[in-house]
Design goal:
The structure is a single chain. The protein has helices spanning 3-23, 41-49, 51-64, 77-80, 89-108, 112-115, 129-147, 161-186, 196-218, 223-243, 262-275; strands at residues 69-70, 118-121, 127-128. By secondary structure, it is mainly α. It folds into two domains: 1-151, Up-down Bundle (Four Helix Bundle (Hemerythrin (Met), subunit A)), CATH 1.20.120; 153-278, no CATH class. Helix 2 (41-49) packs parallel to helix 5 (89-108) and helix 8 runs antiparallel to helix 10. The N and C termini lie far apart (58 Å).
């Protein structure tokens, strides 16, 4: 089976994996955001249902333009502020299945040369039709995984404040490095929009690059070892930024806003749930 055929099969079966994940989320937390800046499972599902249209438009552009240029798709301010919570979920999931079926049929008709047709993408070092749809698959698996974040107990169901806060903060750490690793997997090396995550992403890329190069200097050709070390160091950086270093009394550098760490934020949520005040 060719690489393109494997990719088509993965895209074809993805809705059958993702939709049950969304349906399994308890209704009382389906629209709950893990933290103010992170989408709920509901919003991840709506976002996924809207993605195929954009990628199909990119396909048309690449195949019809001699030197196509692809711009990064940025989430709208309205979506970041919660607009997707007002979109009907059932209709969106039906649309996801319908448009994925149509997209798969289109992809099955592409020639080998069309799969390799290239474009310039502002966030990718190299981009082609194949890379674009590999990006789509990684993108939706990333959002499916993120939809499972924040499914820990609600604060009013957690009797031990610090245990619950630790659980939530660890979820933030894992969700952030998974998000960054997904960008690495997709080859998206461009800058993020301004904000705390933009600075963290820049640091993350620098740390990965530095440790990868150091490993290859001592172990030429060991790209697997270099990638594993870069990943481990990248994850350590994210934990340091979100948790800080209690031993050296270093405060966290990445939180839900410029005034709070994630630990502070989740302690406030627990206090409100149990005591009626932060």
């Amino acid at each position: 089976m060719s690489d393109s055929a494997i990719l088509i099969a993965a895209l074809e079966t993805a809705p059958g994996v993702i939709i049950p994940l969304i349906r399994e989320v308890p209704p009382e937390i389906l629209k709950r955001r893990p933290s103010p800046a992170k989408w709920s499972a509901y919003e991840h599902a709506i976002h996924l249902s809207q993605s195929d249209v954009a990628f199909r438009a990119r396909l048309d552009l690449i195949l019809s333009t001699p030197e196509p240029f692809i711009k990064t798709i940025e989430n709208s301010t309205e979506d970041e502020e919660g607009a997707m919570l007002d979109v009907d979920l059932d209709e969106s999931l039906e649309r996801y299945v319908r448009e994925r079926t149509s997209l798969v049929e289109r992809l099955k008709g592409l020639s080998p040369d069309e799969w390799q047709k290239t474009a310039v993408h502002e966030a990718f070092d190299h981009y082609s039709v194949f890379i674009m749809f590999r990006h789509l698959y990684v993108h939706e698996m990333h959002h499916a995984r993120q939809a499972q974040e924040g499914l820990s107990p609600l604060p009013d169901k957690a009797p031990d404040r610090e245990a619950w806060v630790d659980l939530e903060v660890n979820e933030e750490v894992a969700a952030t490095w998974r998000s960054f690793e997904a960008r690495v997997e997709m080859g998206a090396g461009g800058a993020l929009p301004s904000g705390p995550l933009a600075d963290a992403w820049t640091q993350y890329q620098r740390v990965r690059r530095t440790w990868r190069e150091k490993h290859l200097e001592g172990h030429p050709g060991d790209t697997a070892g270099a990638d594993a070390l870069a990943t481990a160091k990248g994850r350590a950086l994210i934990r340091y930024l979100i948790v800080g270093d209690p031993d050296s009394r270093t405060l966290p550098g990445l939180g839900p806003d410029q005034f709070s760490s994630y630990a502070m934020y989740y302690r406030r949520q627990w206090n409100i749930a149990h005591n009626g005040r932060p």
